[in-house]
Amino acid sequence: MYTDPIADYLTRLRNAIRANHKVVEVPASKLKKEITKILFDQGYILSYKFDDSTAQGSIKIALKYNQDTKDSVIKDIQRISKPGLRKYTGSSTLPRILNGLGIAIVSTSKGVMTDKQARQLNVGGEVICYVY
């Protein structure tokens, strides 16, 4: 059993990218599904599929690589808010990742969204991770 399922999810993605895998499978949860949808919408992953055949279910994620250089589209993915130290921020102090080139995934009262969407809706929340 692990204490931080989001960190486990991000670590599985990171390890699969470093090993140049095409597909990675992770155990599912509502928050992980929302993060996966955001990564797909922002163009960081190629596709995803939710498999609900077991009790918990799983998420199959097809990773995206540049055709010319064979490098991953995701350069780095970092966990920010941890179970031992939660990081909350207001709408005016939301972080800008690489001057707007990356995204911060934020869990707000209106759902999980990127930092840009949270700024537009003028809501703050818990900063889950940075992706660039």
Give a structural overview.
The two termini are 29 Å apart. With 132 residues, the chain is an alpha+beta fold. Helices cover 25% and strands 30% of the residues. The protein is built from three helices and eight strands, in the order H-E-H-E-E-E-E-E-E-H-E. The strands form two sheets. Strands 4, 5, 6, 7 and 8 form a five-stranded antiparallel sheet that branches. A three-stranded antiparallel sheet has the order 1-3-2, covered by helices on one side. The protein has helices spanning 5-18, 30-41, 115-121, and strands at residues 23-27, 45-51, 58-63, 77-79, 88-89, 103-108, 111-114, 125-131.
Keywords:
132 residues, alpha+beta, five-stranded antiparallel beta sheet, three-stranded antiparallel beta sheet, globular
What is this structure's SSE topology?
Blueprint: H1 5-18, E1 23-27, H2 30-41, E2 45-51, E3 58-63, E4 77-79, E5 88-89, E6 103-108, E7 111-114, H3 115-121, E8 125-131
Antiparallel strand pairs: 1-3, 2-3, 4-8, 5-8, 6-7, 6-8
How much is the average pLDDT? Answer: 96
Q: How many β-strands, per DSSP?
A: 8
In oligomeric terms, what are we looking at? single chain
| Main β-sheet description | 5 strands, antiparallel
The ordered string of helix (H) and strand (E) elements is HEHEEEEEEHE
Shape, per Cα inertia axes? globular
Low-confidence parts, pLDDT < 50 over ≥5 residues?
none
Summing up helix and strand content along with how strands pair, one would put the structural category as alpha+beta
Intertermini distance: 29 Å
Question: Roughly what fraction of the amino acids lie in strands?
Answer: 25-35%
Number of helices: 3
Q: How much helix, percentage-wise, in residues?
A: 25-40%
Integer-rounded radius of gyration: 15 Å
